Amino acid sequence: MAAAASRAYADPAAAAARLLLWLALILLMVLTPVAELVFRGPLYVFLPVGACILIVAGRVAQERGSGLKLARLLRSPIAGAALFLFFWAGLSLLWTPFPDEAVTRFLKAALTALVVFFAILSLPEKTRATNLYLLPIGLAIVAVATIVLTFFAPRMFWQGDTPDATLAQRCVMTLTVLLWPAIGGLALREKWLLAVVLAGAVTAAVLATFVEIALVGLALAAVVYAVAVSEPQRVGQILGFGLAALVLLAPAAALIVLALVSVGHLPHVGPGLVFADVIVQEWPRFITGHGLDFATRAVEIGVLPADAPGSILFKIWYELGVLGAIAFAVLAVSAFIAAGNAPVAIAPALLAGLVAGLVVAVWGTETTQIWWMSLNGLDAIALALMCKAAPRAKRPLAPAAEDGPLEPDEEADALEA
User: Fold this and answer.
1) What is the Cα–Cα distance from 398 to 392, expressed in whole angstroms?
2) Is residue 301 part of a domain?
3) Confidence of residue 159 (pLDDT cuts 50, 70, 90)
4) How far apart are CA 193 and CA 344, in angstroms?
5) In this structure, what are the phi and psi dihedrals at residue 323, rounded to the nearest 5 degrees?
6) Residue 66 near residue 58 (C-beta atoms within 8 A)
7) R_g of the chain, CA atoms, integer Å
8) Keyword annotations for this protein (predicted)?
9) 211 lies in which domain range?
10) Is the dihedral of CA 109, 52, 354, 356 positive or negative?
11) What is the pLDDT of residue 383?
12) Is there a domain that residue 296 lies in?
């Protein structure tokens, strides 16, 4: 044990990389969620800083095969669909009526995605057991503090221009989305009691604030997790193709609702009917879309009524047209199938995490905000860290020199072997 430690710490680069990795994970997994309790913008600062530290740590460690990993990722269906979606969104800047705001939004989203992608690529091939406990610690603090602030400081906690901008809703959304990589990490370490306690604390926080979208997202994600424990591949296929059908058939569903309302002489109001009216009146524009960021601006200037849908289903069709909808559907299918095909130990958490985020997006919250994109970026890093801890082939009896000393859990496993 002492010899392994001396060999590991004899390499200054490896020691520096471990320190940077530890600092980055503390910043991302603990400080960022906790800071959401008192500030509205910690994600904008902490996510890029933490991601850049991860990238630097990866460069210092100088792991071999990073080029091969990058090439393999870029050849995957998920990367292909995501790259085409970004390409089409960028191309739509040529015809969007508000190019200045749209360019700003596109650049922020692209930079966030790029930094998160390279941060994930820079994570070490095998994570330490202690790293898996950081996110549960952060979420436990946020859950308890959310309950306390809801009852004892409601004015400060609920103050904001819109519900989506309040500290309460942002904290609850953070808990709902990040719970699943935290549960997955604890499950990998077989800390089932801690996982149950954390899930109970988050559920109590969501019930205390009673944010409907968080309640729905948490409930559906929990159902998916429970079902996927036994059949992750089948659940991934059902969810992927189901979401793709929901995206591609959204205009047809809106037109059916319009026809039923007209036949039944019912009130002609509601987001679904706004969607149908736009299709009838401007159907040629749904081939290319109106351009990035126009859905939000159209409501502000009165082109669309105030009750226009806020769902990502409407925004994809309205802004990016049929090509954007197809790309998003392919991305959804690829992501869910990949999650279902992951190792059984982590597949349920991956699927539940995807469902939690997509429920919020489909429900119609302000998912085009940079805050929401940043939260998804943090969730992606947390899920990737969980995947790095998943069991692979037979565990070696002793760590390599550059891996450093064994953690207590790993030491016990090695001694038993």
Assistant:
1) 16
2) no
3) confident
4) 20
5) -65, -40
6) yes
7) 23
8) Membrane, Transmembrane, Transmembrane helix
9) 2-60+78-248+321-390
10) negative
11) 94
12) no
